[in-house]
Design brief:
The complex is a heterodimer of chains A (514) and B (378). Chain A is α/β, with parallel strands linked by helices. Helix content of chain A is 32%, strand content 27%. Chain A contains 17 helices and 24 strands. Classes of the chains: A alpha/beta (514), B mainly alpha (378).
Chain lengths: 514, 378
């Protein structure tokens, strides 16, 4: 029996209440490109951080070349030939390529028996040697901050090669690359493998994975679903493995009675924080009295869409209309006053001030209006009355509204956010990941309230990474893939499998706009 | 990590239920100073001296005569104002370390206005010259505020650097040959302000009626922070700017507002030093770094306006105590510097722990899946 490059056996990693890896097994053979796929949050990066020595597993062991190995730190991992290129590059932007590559293993001019000064000539030579050997062309004297993202990634790869790495882990290497750069990267990866390297490639883009890998391992919710040979699988099978999940309890609901369009988005384009296009001409409409659900693997522009809709991110081009009024240039406050409410995807970042009282948290977005503020004076008494009313109506479990929001459980904190946003009687409700990380009881309560808003006549846009949630809530479903709507379906007319193919970019409808 | 959040978070909650916020605002600075004094006592013992005479001069003596007690109150006046100035900025998560420069320019502007407009009736002129000091301090602070709010330049650096600029500007105006240099040919100072504007002192001491202005500012800032929409915006932007933005608050505008108010308070501190103490603007003696000390006072007060009064009083007590120790005992008065250093250390530790706790709370958001079940449904 052949000895494998890497064997992970029963790896378990727990972060507080979250089991990021649950007894995960994985086998990587020598000289293959092994893709590790799964949705965001499936535990891929955690597993690889364990292999790279960044995290100590809570259980399980790692075999390298068949030998059980304790990888207590990245330094130790590198010594054992395991290197990793993270999604966020770890280069010093003001230094040259050669300086970055030799950082930590600097060749030095020797004097008095010790290395004193960096031997730049030797550093340059080393960089050139590596770059010709592996066909990774970079200019050793170029300063890293002047390089494109694709070239910086090459420098990162060279950096690991300079340390004699035999097993290279790449965490979503194509997320930041243009299609051409991706093609070039794949050529490099094939060259490296031909030279005896073993590569583990994290991704959730099925087309790329099918293109470049020999073996594919699929993770879902912290567990290893299975490992298949690329030549013996198909995108639909992978989609099922990645996305299939248990259905939520369905909530009794009447059919939608959609009215006129409330939110009209046309040709929206916007960049993400890195300056990479995240929305590429997205169009959709949400009508009064309907819930439009957006399905999609995370990282396909959903976060940016919410930010642009709520006025937190500048659109490059495109139009937004709310009830027939152009809101493209309105501030967040202006949009809220025009009838928009929003539940943010990360309640701790955008949804609450954790250290402020529950009362203060509930007052946001209307603290400056009657009845809370009269003649320029904000009344703590009326804020308290309002907060107490909301807390009892929405069943937010707390002893005292003066306690900080951080004293609430996740489910109750989310109920607070939902109650606050719905308390404004919005014409348009944007609900991003409305039940992320909350218990099943809170999920049901929140879903009921969202459907209640629809029945009241509000237009509701639900964005969720949980396909089951989109299916449970939506009257219509739009699939987002790489910053565009690639398919629109009426609820009940499409299967999960079919949606999965659209979510993973295997299929798309022609000329789509929701 | 998450468990620690619960544990550390639970204790203050339990406290908060039994003690009113006002009592807490008063007790906290007292507790910190008490701990610093105990540590200081240990240090004196370690040097082989008897700490009791020193502490008697520090803690008892100042209360025994109006002479000494009034001196404490006199020192506290500017500290209340600069402490409030730092408090307002801190509440918006801004470090205004430029209180000194804002104070100096506010003082200079007040002195100028008092002399230039001396014909105006005093009941109009007095508020007017204070307003001039406030406006100038506010504008000066707004430079750093604007750099931070719209260009993202860290105010930690800009406020400190602007202090040097402010002090040089003030020097230029009052040094010999400068436009406001005194006609009587003294040092680097303006002429004296009209006698009618000089705030009367109380009981033959240096303590003056300016304290009413300082306490008035405490009340105003309390109301602004807790009873106005702007105060709400400042507090929420300070707690979590992303949350504020998401809720529709224009955070850069709030930063400008907080910085403007902060600078105005520092400017008023300068104005009151001119009106109640020096009766002119002079580059010497006006402020032994009251602007900077305000930062410590604010942290000692845990950013509560009422706590600022207590913290400023305690700090003033240390100032007067240092004098008395110097005059009456063999203990080196530098022990006070050490105690002040300990206070700064202790409040820094408190603040650091609080911030780390807040960051930890934020960090659980990475473990998005299940923060819900962490703390249990209580």
């Amino acid at each position: 029996m052949a000895i494998n490059a890497v064997e992970l056996q029963g790896i378990t990693k727990v972060f507080g209440p979250l089991v990021a890896n649950d007894a995960v097994d994985m086998v990587v053979r020598h000289g293959e490109i092994h893709a590790l796929v799964g949705e965001n949050g499936a535990g891929k990066t955690t597993l690889m951080n364990v292999l790279f020595g960044l995290y100590r597993p809570d259980a399980g062991r790692i075999l390298l070349d068949g030998v059980p190995t304790e990888l207590s730190s990245p330094q130790v991992a590198i010594k054992h030939g395991v290197g990793m290129v993270h999604q966020h590059f770890m280069l010093l932007p003001s230094l040259t390529v050669a300086e970055n590559i030799v950082l930590g293993v600097e060749p030095a001019h020797r004097a008095f028996g010790i290395g004193l000064l960096l031997n730049r000539k030797r550093a340059r030579e080393l960089t050139r040697e590596l770059s010709t050997k592996y066909g990774l062309r970079v200019e050793p004297d170029a300063v890293v901050q002047d390089l494109s993202v694709g070239l910086r990634q090459r420098v990162e790869i060279l950096k690991t090669l300079a340390r004699g790495v035999k097993i290279l882990i790449l965490d979503e290497p194509t997320a930041v690359l243009t299609p051409q750069e991706t093609d070039e990267l794949f050529i490099i990866l094939r060259t490296l493998v031909a030279g005896g390297m073993t590569i583990i490639f994290i991704s959730h883009k099925l087309r790329e994975v099918m293109d470049v890998s020999q073996t594919i391992s699929v993770m879902r919710l912290g567990r290893m679903v299975g490992t298949v040979l690329t030549s013996q699988t198909s995108p639909p099978e992978l989609a099922r493995m990645m996305i299939g999940r248990d259905a939520l309890p369905t909530i009794a609901r009447t059919p939608a009675t959609p009215g006129k369009p409330v939110l009209v988005v046309s040709g929206l384009r916007a960049d993400d924080d890195r300056g990479v296009p995240a929305l590429r001409g997205l169009s959709l409409q949400v009508h009064a009295g309907e819930i439009l659900g957006i399905a999609g693997v995370e990282g396909n522009g959903q976060s940016e869409l919410v930010e642009v809709l709520t006025g937190l991110r500048q659109a490059e081009s495109g139009h937004l209309e709310l009830n027939g009024r152009d809101i493209t240039r309105l501030s967040t406050k202006g949009r809220r006053e025009a009838g928009m409410s929003a539940i943010p995807e990360d309640r701790l970042k955008d949804g609450v001030a954790a250290a402020a009282s529950i009362r203060d948290n509930l007052a946001m977005s209307q603290f400056y209006r009657r009845p809370l503020t009269r003649r320029g004076i904000l009344s703590p008494r009326r804020m308290s009355e309002y907060a107490r009313r909301i807390v009892s109506q929405s069943d937010i479990r707390t002893k005292n509204i003066e306690l900080p929001a951080s004293s609430l459980s996740g489910g109750n904190m989310q109920k607070l956010v939902v109650a606050r946003e719905l308390g404004l009687m919005p014409k348009l409700l944007i609900a991003a990941q409305p039940t992320r990380g909350v218990d099943i009881g809170a999920i049901e309560a929140i879903h009921k309230r969202i459907i209640g808003e629809r029945d009241r006549g509000a237009a509701v846009l639900v964005i969720s990474a949980e396909l089951s949630e989109v299916l449970a809530l939506s009257d219509r479903i739009a699939v987002m893939y790489e910053g565009e709507v690639t398919g629109v379906f009426d609820a009940g007319t499409v299967t999960e499998e079919e949606l999965g193919l659209f979510m993973l970019g295997v299929k798309r409808q022609a000329g789509t706009a929701a | 990590m998450i468990e620690t959040v619960v544990v550390t978070g639970a204790a203050p909650d339990a406290l908060r239920r039994r003690i009113t916020p006002t009592a807490l605002a008063i007790l906290r600075p007292v507790a910190v100073v008490a701990v610093a004094l105990l540590l200081g006592m240990a240090i004196i013992l370690y040097t082989g001296q008897n700490p009791l005479p020193a502490y008697e001069n520090l803690l008892i003596e100042p209360f025994l005569s109006w002479d000494t007690f009034s001196a404490v109150l006199f020192y506290a006046i500017p500290l209340v104002l600069t402490g409030l100035a730092a408090t307002v900025a801190f509440r918006a998560s801004i470090f205004n370390l430029g209180g000194e420069g804002q104070l100096q320019l506010g003082a200079l502007a007040t002195a100028w206005a008092a002399i230039a407009w001396s014909g105006i009736p005093v009941f109009i002129l007095l508020p007017l010259v204070v307003a001039v000091g406030a406006v100038v301090g506010s504008l000066w602070a707004s430079i750093a505020g604007w750099l931070r709010a719209y260009l993202g330049a860290t105010e930690l650096v800009s406020t400190i650097m602007l202090n040097f600029v402010a002090i040089d500007i003030a020097n230029f105006f009052v040094s010999s040959g400068g436009p406001l240099h005194t006609k009587s040919g003294g040092g680097n100072a303006t002429d004296s302000i009209p006698g009618a504007l000089q705030l009367p002192t109380i009981g033959g001491s240096q303590f003056h009626w300016g304290f009413l202005g300082a306490l008035g500012c405490v009340a105003i800032i309390f109301i602004v922070l807790y009873r106005t929409p702007l105060g709400y915006e400042i507090r929420m932007a300070g707690f979590n700017p992303a949350f504020a933005r998401f809720g529709g608050i224009a955070v850069p505008r709030v930063i400008m507002g907080a910085m403007g108010i902060s600078g105005a308070l520092a400017g008023i501190a300068g104005a009151i030093q001119v009106l109640g103490f020096q009766y002119q603007y002079s580059t010497s003696f006006l402020s032994p770094q009251w602007g900077f000390t305000g930062v410590t006072v604010a942290l000692l007060a845990r950013l509560e306006p009422i706590g600022v009064v207590v913290a400023a009083f305690l700090y003033a007590l240390l100032e007067e105590g240092a004098q008395l120790i110097e005059n009456n005992t063999n203990v080196d008065h530098n022990i006070i510097t050490i105690i002040q250093g300990l206070i700064i250390l202790l409040v820094t530790v408190q603040v650091t722990i609080a911030w780390r706790r807040r960051r930890n709370i934020g960090r659980t958001s990475d473990g998005t899946q299940a923060t819900g079940s962490v703390r249990g449904e209580s």
